[in-house]
Specification:
The chain is mainly α. Helix content is 76%, strand content 0%.
């Protein structure tokens, strides 16, 4: 299998691919708000500590697993420990489900890109919110009321999956060329939007809200959990992506330096994107005559309600910047979508020896079909529910399993010896300490903290049966992973 394995055409192709995987929609709509909400500039302290003590060590671990085994996650973990294959399949199943609703959100972006040319959402808070809830989603009253699918979203979803297929069907060498454009283009757009944002009236007030430090928050455990959580998920850790991408590296390829470069590029992008977001929110606040806090929101609300309203109120070239913003979201999202599909395909190829040219279209069609429930009028609810349980429970468990398998079963010292043999930058015993103790301590604490909150409060104000459904999904995927691991394959 190793002799015929695909290879990146260059080191830069690999770096652009993994950076593109890490830099996604969350860099624009999640990081700036979390920074503001958790002490502004002071949040950068726990954020950097989390990057050093968890993000980079775990990225080095995943690069090692892929580079050493030259395999996708299920076979990679089996080569390290014969009982660990199921952990790889668990990660793959989680990322597959995640990709189906992630591509649905990109389908929303396709629709918004179309409407951006005439600012179809209007320029008031009421009209923009109504456009998103009533025109785009036609949102139902609850998760139990599916209300039928929304054809415009289905159309956008189909376009996204077609884009994924056309980018992957010729292999990673072609993907390595595509990612140059899909990484550089959003960087350029972010720079343009930062420059435009900083020239708007009220921009400085927005930046102050973004970065004014409140050091008292550093004594709050939730701030540190937020920092570690943001680092863990923004770097695409425990999703199988970094393992399979690293498995396409040549034997002499560096591990440690690549991990540092990827991490720094991702975090720097998040930080700079915050200037684009909060400078524009400062302008929106001044235009509406309210405080920046009153217009500050996170996640989907920022991307599809607040920011479009701010853009529609721009004095010059509003349509241009509206189209630019949703082009930004699409180009940010597509690299992450590639990186969620490739591990699924390669895991099947590695396990059963199937030809990639047949597996890829099947996975793309299956992903489209599984994504259809998220295009219903209750889709927004189910995206929120699925994302909460997959990211806060499923992926956290995978990260914990990785630390146990490499840190204790294989031995962190043995892994570190291999990493240092192929890397320009050598790592010391500190890496062993992080992988064996500090990183799993954070992941375990986070898991317990989330579970206790779930038991006490449920999730998001939804009916209790949605909590059972979410946990049931995680358990179902884990059991399916065990079954797949027991199936005989070609390898």
């Amino acid at each position: 299998m190793e002799s015929t394995r695909e290879r990146w055409s260059s080191r830069s192709a690999f770096l652009f691919a993994v950076i593109g995987s890490a830099i996604g929609l969350g860099n624009v709509w999640r990081f700036p708000y979390i920074t503001y909400e958790n002490g502004g500039g002071a949040f950068l302290i726990p954020y950097l500590i989390a990057l050093i003590t968890a993000g980079i060590p775990l990225m080095i671990l995943e690069y090692y697993v892929g580079h050493f085994t030259q395999s996708a996650p299920p076979i990679a973990f089996r080569k390290i420990w014969h009982r660990a294959e199921w952990a790889g399949w668990f990660a793959i199943l989680l990322i597959f489900i995640l990709s189906t609703y992630y591509c649905t959100i990109m389908g929303w972006c396709v629709n918004y890109l179309y409407y951006s040319f005439d600012l179809g959402w209007g320029n008031t808070a009421e009209s923009v919110k109504a456009f998103f809830n009533n025109d785009i989603l036609q949102l139902s009253s609850s998760p139990s009321v599916l209300g039928g699918i929304r054809l415009p979203i289905v159309f956008g979803l189909a376009l996204v999956w077609l884009w994924i297929y056309l980018s992957l069907f010729k292999g990673v060498e072609t993907l390595g060329k595509i990612v140059y454009f899909t990484v550089i283009i959003p960087w350029l757009i972010i720079v343009i939007m930062v420059i435009r944002g900083l020239t708007l009236p009220g921009a400085i007030e927005g930046i102050k809200f973004y970065l004014t430090p409140d050091f008292s928050v550093l004594l709050k455990p939730k701030v540190w959990l937020a920092a570690y959580g943001q680092i863990f998920f923004t770097l695409s850790l425990a999703m199988g992506t970094l393992i399979v991408y690293a498995s396409y590296l040549h034997e002499e390829s560096d591990i440690t330096v690549n991990a540092f470069l990827t991490s720094i590029a991702n975090c720097l992008t998040s930080f700079v994107a915050g200037f684009a977001v909060f400078s524009t929110l400062g302008y929106l606040a001044q235009t509406l005559g309210v405080s920046v806090k009153d217009v500050t929101t996170s996640g989907i609300g920022l991307a599809f309600v607040t920011y479009p309203m701010a853009i529609s109120l721009l004095p010059v070239a509003a349509r241009f910047f509206a189209a630019l913003f949703f082009l930004l979201l699409l180009t940010l999202g597509i690299d992450s979508a590639f990186s969620m599909t490739e591990p699924v395909v390669e895991s099947i190829v590695d396990k059963w020896g199937a030809k990639k040219k047949y597996v890829l279209p099947v996975i793309c069609v299956l992903g489209f079909l599984v994504g259809l429930p998220f295009t219903t009028r209750a889709g927004l609810y189910w995206i929120d529910i699925a994302d909460h349980f997959i990211t806060n429970y499923g992926i956290t468990v995978v990260g914990l399993l990785e630390c146990i398998i490499i840190g204790y079963v294989l031995g962190a010292k043995k892994a570190r010896s291999y990493i240092n043999q192929v890397s320009e930058m050598k790592i010391g015993i500190w890496w062993d300490i992080f992988i064996k103790f500090l990183t799993p301590a954070f992941l375990g604490t986070s898991l317990v903290f989330q579970f206790v909150n779930l038991i006490k409060k449920g999730y998001g104000g939804y009916p209790i049966w949605t909590t059972y459904t979410g946990m049931g999904l995680i358990i179902f995927l884990a059991l399916t992973a065990i079954i797949l691991a027991k199936r005989k394959g070609a390898v």
